[in-house]
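Researcher: I'm preparing a figure for a lab meeting and need a structural model of a single chain. I don't have an experimental structure, so a prediction will have to do for now. The sequence is pasted below. Please return the structure as tokens so I can convert it later.
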Amino acid sequence: MLIQRIAIFILLVSSACFAIGDDISSGNANPSPEATQLIESLGLREGGQPLSQHPRWEQPDYIVAIIPPQFKPIAGAMINKLKKSAGNIEIKSYTPTTEDLPEYVKNATVVFGACSKSLLEQIPNLIWIQINSSGSESCTSQAGVKSGDFILSNAQKMGSVPIAEHAISLALMLNRNLHRYYSNQRDGKWIRRLPKVRGPGELSEKTLLVLGLGGIGTEVAKRAHALGLRVIATRNSSRTGPDYVAKVGLASDIYALAKEADFVVNALPLTPKTNNLINKQFFSALKKGSHYISVGRGKTTNIADLITALNEGQLAGAALDVTDPEPLPGDHPLWKRNDVIITPHVAGFSMPAVQRSFILYQENLRRYLNGEKLLNVVDIERGY
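Model: Understood. Here is the structure written out token by token.
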């Protein structure tokens, strides 16, 4: 069944890739209508420096697309779309193996795809890498990478909508105990009043705390407010936010805001400051009987402290799309708990998200070749 689901997903992704318009041609001075709409709708930000001012910027001899084995069936679709911006510049694909990197990868200046410290150490001429995930910790200071001459851009905000929908779905399940009723359904049990479980309230009575009011957190807040929740949040940049967020605090306000929360959605990136941030101190600051949802990065949550909070009743339930470690081992105690919902890091998967990602890749390649400012540039030291 797992293989069938993967095959179906790859087929859907392939269909989504081919559904993107082909009107982005190499050498275009202006973004395509799709790119313009994407930038405006998601509020994508440009990097601070035009590429033409970068001391090492130049037109690449070729571009390398690193394709993980599981996505090899869609490599052709991805390359065909990038060619719309690349024009006569060759795009060479590479699927990671246990063997040494081929010379064309080692000599690359422009790379699309996965990233790691070990990879970066073997590509000394790299000028720009566009990664296919929103999380950048595998190639930032979190992985021991220092800021240097290369530029890093990510896929931030491309999957914000499905992740937000996933987080809200988990909140609804926890609030209505749907995961417990589904367990009873599988056992053929009609139990209207669940033993030792507090009856659900209504979301309009509750406060939801969003940790990380960025691309994902903002979409979560928007949907939570529409359901009647009072939304509060943390962000690094300021204590201001959209109208549908009642209160915004800085990262230092996290424990004060936790005291008000009935639900928490963790949408934090993984940085040295957020690593293991959600621990005993945070759980102790929450209202007793609150619910915790994590859709950001697994290592931001101390799993042992999470289990303790559940055992002691400080948390009534938890829902995790990301874990530490990941994948979660089959014998891990979290799997057997009826107060925990686990999904295998799938919140960001959707065909529209894939379409948005390909538009971003095409637009960023167009910008690079024209020496313009890139979108979604990552601060390597800060980690996002």
